[in-house]
Amino acid sequence: MFRLSNLLNSVVEGKSARVLDGSIAIWNFTNRCNLSCLHCYSKAELDSVDTLSTEKIMETLPKLKANGVKFLIFSGGEPLTRHDIYDIAGRCKELGIVTYLSTNGLYVKKSNAEKILDTFDYIGISIDGSEKVHDAFRGLKGSFIASMKAVDLLNSYGRTKVGIRFTITKDTYDDLAFIFELAEKHNIPKVYISHLVYSGRGLDNLEIDLSKEQRVTAVNYILDKAFEYHESKRDIEIVTGNMEMDAILFYDRFIQKYPEHADEMKKRLITWGGNSAGRKLLNIDAEGNVKPDPFFPTIIGNIFREDFTDIWTDKPVELLKKLRIHPRELGGKCEKCNYLEICNGGSRSRAYAIYGDMWAEDPSCYL
Question: What element of type H or E holds 125?
Fold first, then answer.
């Protein structure tokens, strides 16, 4: 996750860096979902049955906290299909874990809007383009209107904690500008743009990924908007995900505009450290499997069979130890890249999906 707006604003304005003091866990509490999105890494579907009991989840939460997890992203499937989701988030609040809800918004109604806002520290709602594009991508006619109703409803309470999440693929590429226009028109405070990772339906539908030329054009447009918002003091935060090389293109653009801040920006980018799977990021899926990130082809443990502390801290498998070397020891063009300490080689899941080699270069690297 690359918080480019935060970095841009803080460095130019001489403010302290926003440093992640701890780890982020993405927990797929369910594999049940009312949509069938083309890029879904968990291949969620409406007929899925929950494996994780409330008791097992509650038992594991204090262990996450004890092992340095400071942020917990509620994901799925659609997490709002679980009847106990508010209880789980409430327990996180008691433990001091910050909660993010990742939802398609279709279950957000006037009857539960305030409860959602009171329960979660941040809510991200998926919008994948204009109405026609979004509905086709998400597999349900009318889903765009329903999701945007949820965005507007939640933001109408004035708490500035609801953003939109957009996955950029060949199917949604032409609607990138639309997403920013939407954020501007609806006063949406945050736009998160995710690149495709080759896992689940994202691997099955590999042909929808951008070409490298498209990716460069798209990322440059995203950077244009970040600099525009910074210079105009427009309060819209931009974050990109699953493409740590964006930080290097950003740095190249930044030093042209603000050469006097080049050293400080490079220092902060190295501290950020790029891809953090297995280091500052982990995933627990709907079966209790623990992975370095949600897309990872390898499981490093299971909370039903092992103690989370053993999996993550006391007895990490060799793969986890190797992922925690920074910068990573990688092959291909990563091996001699001058910017490896910034991006950390990008996605190991994409490398494995294309080359069958966890330690190869990220095939989506566009630099």
Answer: strand 122-126
Can you name the residues that pair with 123 across neighbouring β-strands?
A: 101, 162
CB 68: neighbour CB atoms within 10 A? 13
- Give me the residues paired with residue 167 across strands: 194
Query: Distance between CA 348 and CA 221 in Å, rounded?
Result: 26
Half-sphere exposure of residue 299, counting CA atoms within 13 Å on the CB side? Answer: 12
SS3 218: helix
Write the pLDDT tens digit of every residue in 339-349: 999 999 999 99
End-to-end CA distance of the chain: 18
Query: Which of 106, 185, 212 shows the shortest CA–CA distance to 177?
Result: 185
Cβ contacts of 104 within 8 Å, gap of 6 or more:
33, 34, 35, 78, 125, 126, 138, 143, 147
Give the residue with greater pLDDT, 248 vs 206: 248
Q: Which tens digits make up the pLDDT trace of 265-297? A: 999 999 999 999 999 999 999 999 999 999 998
CA distance 360 to 348: 8
Q: Which residues contact 239 (CB under 8 A, 6 or more apart)?
A: 1, 2, 3, 4, 5, 190, 191, 192, 193
Q: How many CB atoms lie within 10 A of CB 25?
A: 25
